Fold this sequence. Notes:
Layout (H helix, E strand, L loop, with lengths): L2 E11 L2 E11 L2 E6 L9 E4 L4 E4 L1 E6 L1 E2 L2 E2 L5 H12 L3 E6 L6 H17 L5 E2 L2 E4 L21 H9 L4 E6 L6 H10 L3 E4 L6 H10 L1 E4 L10 E3 L2 E3 L2 H7 L4 E5 L7 H11 L4 E4 L11 E5 L6 E6 L2 E3 L13 H10 L5 H6 L3 H6 L17 E4 L5 E6 L2 E5 L5 E3 L1
Parallel strand pairs: 1-4, 1-5, 6-9, 9-10, 11-12, 12-13, 13-14, 14-17, 17-18
Antiparallel strand pairs: 1-2, 2-3, 4-25, 5-22, 7-8, 15-16, 19-20, 20-21, 22-23, 23-24
Helix pairs in contact: 1-2
Amino acid sequence: MRYTKIYNANILTPGRIVQDGTVVIADDKIVEVGDKNIDIPSAVHINAGGKYLSPGFIDLHVHGGGGRDFMDNTVPAFLAIAKTHAKYGTTSMMPTTLSCEHQDLMDTIKTYENADLKNTEGAQFIGLHIEGPYFSMAQKGAQDPKYIRNPDPAEYMEILAGTDVIRRWSAAPELPGALEFGRTLKEKGILAAIAHTDAVYEEVMEAWKVGYSHATHFYSCMSGVSRRNAYRFAGVVESAYLLDEMTVEIIADGIHLPPPLLKLVYKIKGLENIALITDAMRAAGMPEGRSILGSLKSGMEVIVEDGVAKLPDRSAFAGSVATADRLVRNMMELAEVSLSDAVHMMTETPAKILNIQYQKGSISKNKDADLILFDKDIRVDTTIVGGRMVYTSSSLPATHL
């Protein structure tokens, strides 16, 4: 076996921080976690230098980064995005689509399958997230309206029959045919998520019953309290608060949701029901300026400024340029949560939402060796995916002893 020992680390484990701790990796699994410097003579030794050792960040919703988008539909684009986000602590990610033509979506699925086999130097792909095209036109946000449509059984059954890489699909549950679509996703073990929706409470309750259990980029492009013919109706936001077991994801870039809303979501939903997501587009990790949301062939022009992507007329945000380290840092600084809780929402909670908590999401024996080292400012120093070091700032010595 190939052994790696990380020592002199402050280890973020479930329930406590182990000071001056040691983690031993055998091939791609964690085999020891403790507060003593375990003797492993044949191991590669990494002195953490007192930095924090955390589970790798799990991003449930990401479109691109490093100048690439998953809908560019090339294997090099997929691999470049995985490498870009690994630099910021992401060890597992869900490549995410946008509303598009049917053939473009089929091409993205095929590209995912090909890229997954070659992805050895970046964040691991843990399933494809289809965002759209079954959305409310009233809540389209930055989704291109020419692709938005109602659920079509002939279309989605063909897609689902042809691949097993789809792990999540986001849709508006109030659309004609959306409840049957949700039932189909649940039967196939695919996470059904509510997104880009103008639903009211009663429609959300029906959706919940058939399997819609998660809210995509909470608050963004979804209904709140509204008035219809003088009567007030609760929207998706209030419904998610009332449904204790519904999970939500938030873009904690400090812009999509300002500090008071970050605090409110945390206060009501709690860390066990909140996943932090980047929702990053191709401009993540790039200088500000003009960029493209979606594919280079048919994407939408956007402007990146003030730390966020906007439509050219600045009428709406158009995806985030956040990275995972920024989300954790913002939850600590803006929402005033502890380091452990902020990391939990970027690791354990997303793992539970995807039902992969027995393999990922925490530093425990027999789990995947997906680990990151960062300092008190959440500046990532080293990223390890499946026991392989895929990124390092080279400030930490690794020696064979």
